[in-house]
Amino acid sequence: MSAPSQSQQAxxxxxxxxxxALMGVGVAGFLDETVFHQLLHWHxxxxxxxxxxxxxxxxxxxxxxxxxxxxxxxxxxxxxxxxGADRRRVWAGGLVGWGGFQLYDGLxxxxxxxxxxxxxxxxxxxxxxxxxxxxxxxxxAGLLLLRERVTRRP
Amino acid sequence: xxxxxxxxxxxxxYAWGVRVLHSRGDRWPWHRTAAAWLxxxxxxxxxxxxxxxxxGPFALHAAQHLVLASAVPIALVVANPVLLALRTLPLRxxxxxxxxxxxxxxxxxxxxxxxxxxxxxxxxxYYLTGFYDVAESHPLLHLAVHAHMLLAGCLLTxxxxxxxxLPARTVPVRLLVLVVAAGSHDLLAKLMYAHGxxxxxxxxxQLRAGAQLLYYGGDVAELLTAVLVxxxxxxxxxxxxxxxxxx
Lengths: 154, 247
What we know:
By secondary structure, chain A is mostly helical. Chain A has helices at 13-39, 52-81, 87-112, 124-152. Chain A contains four helices and no strands.
């Protein structure tokens, strides 16, 4: 159980980033499904304007986000066991994964492919802007976090 | 009721195998035995009323489908009766079973494209074409459809989880297979919801309720399968780490 002392210093940057990104995508999918579909009932299971391409994309991304969540958590547990988690990279990955997924969902799925809207019977623009802005900020913050790490290295 | 007798017989055979192992002092994790009884229960329930009621609301049919094609295969893959048989059968039968498990036919049936096509393709054919209506009115065909659901569900689950004695294929490939299969399942449920399919299986509301049950039930099955794949990986990595730290 206890990690050997020589590996104490050696974090696994690639795996940390990967685990974070997977968990980020998973959290985005989870929030979408539980908060917006089930709790708030803002999203609809299906609305008549959804095009076939939107259903296809939604189906595979929905399935992918569950697997990403489980894989990310196990990968992270394995990193902890090896004492190899680079926390900054986990956070960077998480922000990039969550923000990227949120942006894809907001721009491509909801707008381009005409999937169900964020909310119905309201003026949509503020919702769309808030949705995409949140995703964009998370994505940029994640990338900045990643860059800082690289430049700090000699 | 059709499934109850074979399921109970298989359960008794399993229990006998576990007894043989225990009597010679070998270990057999209790969760495998528990999973075996869940599979027996699932198979009996799926082929008895109320799940197997002709002409009942479509949601009942959807629940039956989920139990047969997802829940029972997942319970069976945990129970791993093949491994139990390999440990308890006499040498000749064991050799025969291994030969079947390692045969070309088994390898092809368990390859991702074939397993996914049989499982997902069968379901698509069943619900999106007029096939559902035809099968409902022919008892033998109906039975064959149920057998196909169970067997194809097992193929897919075995392909993704790859329990012993199957070789452990790389985890990313198996997770990709899972996402493709589960995503197709989600898509199918949404198409059924959107277009009121299968035609003639009930009122529009009943069809929508059934399609939603398929969708969310499929999510649960996908989650469980992902946990099985990754907990297997986690345990293997743990053994590797323990081995490396001893060396």
